[in-house]
Amino acid sequence: MIMSIIAGGFVAGGLTSIVANQWRTVINESLDAGKLISIRTVVSCVVFAAYVTALQINVDPTNFYSFALFGLMLWLLCLLDYDTMTLPDNITQPLLWVGLLLSCTKYSMLSPVDAIWGATIGYMSLWSLNMFCVFVFKKQGMGHGDFKLFAAIGAWLGVQSLIATMAVAVIVGFITALYFFTSKKHKNGAFPFGIGLASGAVVYVLCGDIVDMFLSLLS
To answer: How many domains does the chain have?
Structure first.
């Protein structure tokens, strides 16, 4: 069973990388699609195989396939954000709605009310932060795709996940920013914060109980 899960994750990760490789040319026609099989494709295979293996160990079997889909979509968004600095609506919005709809079934750990609150607070928190940046610094603090991704994370994982997700996102975002600035990949001081948000969500999926226990001790 575990070997079939690893193999499935390996294939899914590779296909996701190939899809992202082709999709980025739709978002930005100046980018070359490149080779279908690349080092990044192999990395994607390994990363997603590791993710689904960790899911099998740490997540309730009822939620396994839904969280596998969640992780796959997050990985696709990470690849696209890295390549194009965008989080496409035609991925973030379906991710949000699937999270809300799953909350009406046994395949989610949330009730519909919790999912709605998670999506609402996720979106409004980053929207408010961005409005603060616009008001104080006269420029956008982040892209609107980040709002929608954080809303989707809230819909899948609930309000209680947002603090932990943001904490990880800040750390990963700092590392990503350093890489982009030192490698001269940044444009107008921007960097892909969606990678950090997705990383935080994955950490919560795999270690949510530990994170919640830690936060309860702090409160």
So the answer is: 1
